[in-house]
Write a structure and sequence with these properties.
Distance between the termini: 12 Å
Number of strands: 17
CATH superfamily of the largest domain: Pseudouridine synthase
EC number: 5.4.99.25
Oligomer: single chain
Structural class: alpha+beta
Shape: elongated
Function: Responsible for synthesis of pseudouridine from uracil-55 in the psi GC loop of transfer RNAs.
Helix content: 10-25%
CATH architecture of the largest domain: 2-Layer Sandwich
Radius of gyration: 22 Å
Number of domains: 3
GO biological process, one term: mRNA pseudouridine synthesis
Enzyme class: isomerase
Pfam family, one: TruB_C_2
Largest sheet: 9 strands, mixed
């Protein structure tokens, strides 16, 4: 049993809660996830099963999509609505002012990770320090926001929603906090739905209840998506029967045997069409980058 499940993580669950539940439903310990979601967040959580767990740290599609709710005029210690209120500001903000401020956060920008995050400093997670009442200096890190669109905004309540497409390492609640700071009134996240991650979209997700029901009716394999779907950004390469055996045994293939271009990463398939793993042509030979058949 090996593959990926696009799980719809419900609000109130941690990502580890989902993994623990999946272990019980699928009756296997070998499960991991691709990208932590905060407990208040919901949406796409890619769950990797069996041999597919080896893919968690090498996923090529680092884009993540979010639909986030926000409220201007408030700041909290967690940068979202669940935290302790630190300040309130009643000034008005027009839709035009909000849009102009948001546009300045598109592209490669620097972001300071929030205290309530899993980022480690001197071996300790920031949220552990935050729970002890400690606030420490954090270094700003470069992140990439590919697009940021204000979906709706009410100038009276100063509440709205935004659509964000970004690369991994981006904290949406910090993005909202920083936009509010630029506007001079503060801002906090009120909701968060992840709509895209690891090549998987919201419409592909199954709820935990649906997964439990389907597995009970049709078996665990029926809820698994092929792992190679997560690597579709790479071109496919199919080996013939003889070369498949050589490749699986770790033999470096010649260029004419593999039919690959130098430097490119490929999705490698055996003669039977089964996904073997990832390979690359380097130093005159085609070698494995990561195998998923063992």
């Amino acid at each position: 049993m090996s593959g990926v499940i696009a799980v719809y993580k419900p609000a109130g669950w941690t990502s580890f809660d989902v993994v623990a539940k999946m272990r019980g439903i699928l009756h296997t310990r070998k499960i991991g996830h691709g990208g932590t979601l905060d407990p208040m967040a919901e949406g796409v959580l890619p769950v990797f099963v069996g041999k597919a767990t080896k893919a968690c740290d090498i996923l090529p599609d680092v884009r993540k999509g979010y639909h986030a709710g926000f409220r201007l005029g408030i700041t909290t210690d967690t940068q979202d609505i669940t935290g302790k209120i630190l300040s309130e500001d009643g000034r008005s903000v027009t839709a035009e002012e909000l849009k102009a401020a948001a546009e300045k956060f598109i592209g490669k920008i620097m972001q300071v990770p929030p205290m309530y995050s899993a980022v480690k400093v001197d071996g300790k997670k920031l949220y552990e320090l935050a729970r002890e009442g400690k606030v420490i200096e954090r270094e700003a890190r470069e992140i990439t926001v590919l697009s940021l669109v204000i979906d709706d905004y009410d100038e009276v309540s100063r509440e709205g929603h935004m659509m964000v497409l970004c690369e991994k390492g981006t904290y949406i609640r910090t993005l909202i906090n920083d936009i509010g700071e630029m506007l001079g009134c503060g801002g906090a996240m009120t909701s968060l739905v992840r709509s895209y991650s690891a090549g998987l979209a919201l419409e592909e997700c199954l709820s935990i209840e649906d997964i439990q029901r389907i597995v009970g009716e049709s078996g665990a394999e029926s809820v698994l998506t092929r792992l190679d779907k997560c690597f579709e950004v790479y071109p496919a390469l199919k080996l013939d029967e003889r070369v498949t055996g050589l490749y699986k045994n770790g033999v470096k293939l010649r260029a004419e045997q593999a039919g690959a271009e130098d430097g490119s990463v490929y999705r490698v398939y055996g003669a039977d069409g089964a996904f073997i793993g990832l390979g690359r042509m380097t130093d005159g030979g085609f070698r494995s980058v990561k195998n998923f058949f063992v």
